[in-house]
Design a protein that fits this description.
This protein is of the alpha/beta class. Helix content is 52%, strand content 14%. It has 27 helices and 17 strands. Strands 1, 2, 3, 4, 5, 6, 7, 8 and 9 form a 9-stranded mixed sheet that branches. Helix 1 links the parallel strand 1 and strand 2. Helix 22 packs antiparallel against helix 24 and helix 23 runs antiparallel to helix 25. The longest helix has 96 residues. The protein starts with a strand and ends with a helix.
Length: 845
């Protein structure tokens, strides 16, 4: 704890006791108050206190002489002057002392002071701006008790003291000479009071000729100190002030002209409103007459309803008589047989048996005989839902998930910078772990933003670099980042993050990615604060939802919007906990995101990341299964998004499906009954899409792109039953090349025996899947992109192509997994081709 001397010049005013008490009540520093009787008389009514020293009476002292007497008595390394009619607010000295500890090169620190005057006291001014050295030459910006200075800075030869030939403006002169010895640190915020009393003040109360003489004496010293460079700065500063004044006058004239025009337009508007009011009155009279007519009609309809109710009662009596009759009971078996035959002919039985057969094969492959016997109770609980799900035939979803009404939600938790939360969690030290590879200048910006986060006891950044060649790791290492290097072949999402956690020293770990960016300087504090505030509820980890960057593509915006709707954190914070072991419950409740994920270091070391994909989801699921809770925050979001090519969507969707089927035993895996039908569906959509995209790009400005998309999807129901032999190249060369290679390799496969019905159904299933996905995007984009322009046309075309790529990736994943699960259903050549596609599409994601 640092020692601080508070120096008070006093002529024995009654307010002295208040000033002394405000200094003694300062926390976080050791205070010694030293008072000099500047009036030459002993001080009355000042209680003795071990932390208060009253200097011996030396006769009547000038303001400068009294200040020098106090400086002579100083023993602490830091000191602050306080007039006897001013006072300090709590935390004043601690804030200033902490600023000087953080900035050892500064000679002093200053903070905000409010000026009060009158009865009752009213705020008349606030000093709380960083010192402008040029402006300081012409105007004192520092109330004397706003500044905490290092005493050592005064003793450097020649020693610095108050000029005793100045009886006024002596503190201004003192600060100017102190500024020549080093910089001042500004600590924002008001924590002291300057009492302005026109009757008892000194320089403020002196006016007229006397003040002019005092200013001339001060100016004479200024002239002796100014250099040509300082005069040039003063001239430039005055020119800026004149320019700002001139601009303000011009704005005032423009506003006056606007007000005059507004008054004229208001008068005309009043006339218009009067005419509208008269018209509304006439309409109201017409509505009243119409209401009377409707009332009469209503009475007639009520009479009709009463008659229909009587008829309905009679019909119900007849129905009850029929249901209780002997013939109805005798024919009950026949009706049951009819319903069963109808269910069998509808195809739902085949769909149910096929789905259950796939689930059974998957369960056998995963758990074996004894594992499945132990899981019989679980299967029995799951059976009703499986029957319900598999009994429904697949189809195109037409409902718009983005058009649902928003539910009533509790108030949002606000960002800490919006509620002026300036608390400091001194006991929390956060280690931010970021795997990087050629992060570029944006990584440098991210690191600087993280190191500037406020409100925590400490922040370290641990970067795990897997072979960057852009020179950025060396630059961020110079900023104090802990740099861990690994070879590119060593990288995996889990290993890199686990390694970074091993090198971290904080109480908490915060995992991020190199292309994310925090919002605000207390963003990380807000996430930690949320975790601590909800610790009693069992929350142990928290991630943020995302704001898309300006260069994000519409397809990504749609995907992330859908994702956060599914998680329940699009508009409000969500706390996830274990509610069931089905994949929908585990994914919606257990999701965490490595874009921004906070967890205590001790707990993370118990679980760690595992696997080479979706390691964040896996961690969240293990946490909630263990009884913990995890949070996804909408109140504190992070800026992050991508603009990926269509080829990425094809590979990423393929890997997503493989991962989800492998992780969740109840994840539905529709079988592929006809490889030829699937390939025909892919070729048909590719050919139609390649022909439509140029038409979309030619859509005139101002027309609705969503209407064009809706019309095209409606036309898809009338596509030719077989695709043409060739089509225009798709805009993504890798997707186009992959699809053409896929068709060529399929033609080289031995022809399999497949029924035409199964082939046509499989082809239509792919078309339906693509249409459903693209229709989903259309629902999202329609209220956003209402009229076409070049950018909107490009976004729609790119989204259509990426949707096709994602559909191909998903369909091929289901086919590959089906061939792996049922090896006897395909030839050796087909299984080998499936394994080849598996390796090709999984690599690099």
């Amino acid at each position: 704890m640092v020692d601080v001397d508070v120096l008070i010049r006093s002529c024995g005013r009654p307010s002295l006791a208040r000033a002394v008490q405000s200094a003694l009540e300062q926390a976080g520093v050791r205070v010694q108050v030293r008072v000099v009787p500047a009036g030459g008389e002993p001080l009355q009514d000042l209680a003795e206190h071990p932390q208060v020293q009253v200097l011996p009476v030396q006769g009547r002292l000038s303001r400068s002489a009294a200040a020098n007497a106090l400086l002579q008595a100083v023993e602490a390394p830091l000191a602050l002057f306080l007039d006897d009619d001013d006072w300090l607010l709590p935390g004043h000295l601690q804030r200033l002392a902490q600023a000087l500890q953080a900035q050892p090169e500064a000679v002093a620190a200053h903070t905000g002071v409010e000026v009060l005057s009158g009865e009752p006291p009213q705020r008349v001014h606030v000093y709380d701006q960083p010192v402008d050295p040029t402006r300081m030459q012409l105007q004192n910006q520092l109330p004397i008790h706003a500044v905490l200075f290092r005493c050592a800075a005064l003793e450097a030869a020649p020693s610095l003291r108050f000029d005793e030939s100045l009886d006024h403006f002596e503190d201004w002169d003192f600060w100017l000479r102190l500024l020549m010895r080093g910089g001042l640190v500004h600590v924002p915020g008001v924590s002291a009071v300057y009492w302005l009393d026109a009757q008892q003040g000194s320089g403020h109360a002196t006016q007229g000729a006397q003040r002019a003489l005092q200013l001339e004496a001060f100016a004479a010293r200024q002239l002796s100190r100014w250099s040509p460079a300082q005069l040039r700065e003063l001239i430039e500063w005055q020119g800026q002030q004149d320019a700002q004044h001139s601009a303000a006058e011009q704005r005032g004239q423009a506003l006056a002209a606007e007000l005059q025009a507004l008054a004229q337009s208001s008068a005309a508007r009043i006339d218009e409103l009067a005419a509208e009011l008269d018209s509304e009155r006439r309409e109201l009279s017409a509505h009243r007459r119409e209401l009377q007519t409707l009332q009469t009609l209503r009475e007639r309809q009520l009479a009709e309803i009463a008659g229909l109710s009587r008829e309905l009662g009679q019909a119900q009596q007849q129905r009850d008589a029929l249901l209780n009759s002997t013939s109805w009971r005798l024919t009950r078996p026949l009706r049951a047989v009819g319903k069963t035959l109808h269910w069998l002919r509808s195809g739902r039985a085949r769909h149910l048996l096929g789905g259950l057969r796939q689930r059974a094969a998957s369960a056998w492959r995963r758990h074996g005989l004894w594992g499945n016997l132990r899981r019989i109770p679980h299967y029995l609980r799951l059976l009703p839902r499986l029957v319900r799900d598999y009994s429904q035939p697949a189809g195109v979803v037409a409902a718009n998930p983005f058009a649902v009404a928003a539910p009533v939600r509790p108030p949002l938790r606000l960002h800490p910078q919006l509620v002026a939360d300036e608390r400091v969690l001194a006991e929390v030290r956060v280690s931010v772990v970021i795997p990087v590879l050629n992060g570029g200048p944006e990584l440098l910006l991210l690191v600087r933003k993280l190191l500037g986060q406020q409100g925590l006891g400490g922040i370290e950044v641990v970067v795990v670099d897997s072979g960057s060649s852009d020179g950025i790791p060396e630059r961020i290492e110079a900023l104090g980042v802990r740099l861990v290097r690994i070879r590119p072949e060593e990288f995996s999402h889990s290993h890199a993050r686990n390694l970074g956690a091993e090198h971290a020293t904080g109480t908490h770990l915060f995992f991020m990615v190199q292309d994310a960016y925090p919002i605000g300087d207390r963003w990380l504090y807000g996430i930690v604060r949320y975790l601590l505030d909800h610790a009693e509820q069992g929350v142990v980890a928290a991630s943020c939802a995302e704001y898309s960057r300006a260069d994000s593509d519409a397809m990504y915006d749609c995907s992330v919007n859908t994702h956060y709707r599914f998680l329940g954190c699009l508009d409000e914070d969500r706390i996830g906990h274990f509610i069931g072991d089905d994949h929908m419950s585990l994914r919606s409740m257990g999701q965490l995101s490595d874009v921004s994920c906070l967890i205590s270091r001790a707990l993370f070391q118990q679980y760690r990341y595992r696997g080479d994909f979706a390691e964040d989801l896996d961690l969240g699921i293990r946490l909630i299964k263990a009884g913990h809770k995890v949070a996804m925050l909408a109140s504190l979001k992070v800026v992050h998004s991508h603009n990926r090519p269509a080829w990425y969507y094809l590979k990423r969707t393929f890997v997503d499906v493989v991962f989800l089927v492998d992780l969740f035993e109840d994840f539905e895996r529709p079988g592929c009954r006809s490889l030829r039908g699937l390939i025909e569906g892919i070729e048909l959509v590719a050919q139609r899409l390649a022909a439509w995209l140029p038409e979309l790009q030619g859509l005139p400005d101002g027309q609705s792109p969503s209407e064009a998309l809706r019309t095209w999807l409606q036309g898809a129901r009338h596509w030719l039953p077989r695709p043409q032999q060739d089509w225009q190249a798709l805009d993504d060369a890798r997707v186009d090349g992959f699809v053409r290679q896929l068709l060529a390799e399929h033609r080289q496969q031995p022809a399999a025996k497949e029924a035409d019905r199964e082939r046509l159904q499989e082809r239509q299933r792919f078309v339906d899947m693509f249409m459903s996905r693209l229709e989903h995007f259309g629902h999202f984009a329609a209220p956003i992109y209402t009229a076409a322009d070049a950018r909107v046309r490009e976004e729609y075309a790119a989204a259509a192509l990426k949707t096709f790529a994602a559909s191909v990736g998903a369909a091929l994943a289901f086919w590959v997994l089906d061939r792996r699960a049922t090896p006897g259903s395909a030839s050796d050549a087909e299984r080998a081709w499936a394994e080849q596609l598996f390796s090709q599409l999984k690599a690099g994601v």
